Amino acid sequence: MDFKEISTLIKNRKSTYPKQFSGEKVSDETINQWLEMANWAPTHKLTQPWRFVVFAESALQNLVEKHKSHYLLNTPLDAVNDKKLENFDLIKEKTSHLIAVVASLDEAKRLPEWEEIAATAMAVQNLYLSMDALGICGYWSSGNGTNSEAMRHLLNLMPHQVHLGWFYVGIADPNAPEPGRFRKDMKEKIEWKR
Length: 194
Hints:
By secondary structure, this protein is of the alpha+beta class. It has a single domain, classed as NADH Oxidase (3-Layer(aba) Sandwich), CATH 3.40.109. The chain is built from six helices and four strands. Strands 1-2-4-3 form a four-stranded antiparallel β-sheet, sandwiched between helices. Helix 2 packs across helix 5 and helix 3 runs antiparallel to helix 4.
């Protein structure tokens, strides 16, 4: 693979949201093949901290209901957004798999927490980069009670584990509009010292 191919792959990485999913299901085999790509992320001391909890079918439906309940319990009544409530139903209808992203921190504390979280984020980047090749799409969200006590309990997490969000997976609806993609000029983000 040459630089141009790698550049195209990286620049084409995108988030696709449940409202842009077709509702078609992804096979569990494809999900397993896809998650294998996460396993090749860089990891200091080979701790490989990434963990994934995959929800499908009735487990996904139940999870989204728990997300909805969590939202209603933690939002003042006058701040409840009807669109947000409708979105929970849309997620149940259109999302194929919903995956909890977890960093399992090094219990020996050989590494700082941020390194383990960064390694897990790199594993998620590998997922993003491999989606197109498998014909799937999705996005990583830090909403819906991420790392709250309720979600930690639901995921049966240990004290050394951190819940970093949810990855929504589906098949893109070819008729759905794509969100705009924009990056500021990289020159604004680089400082050279010689």
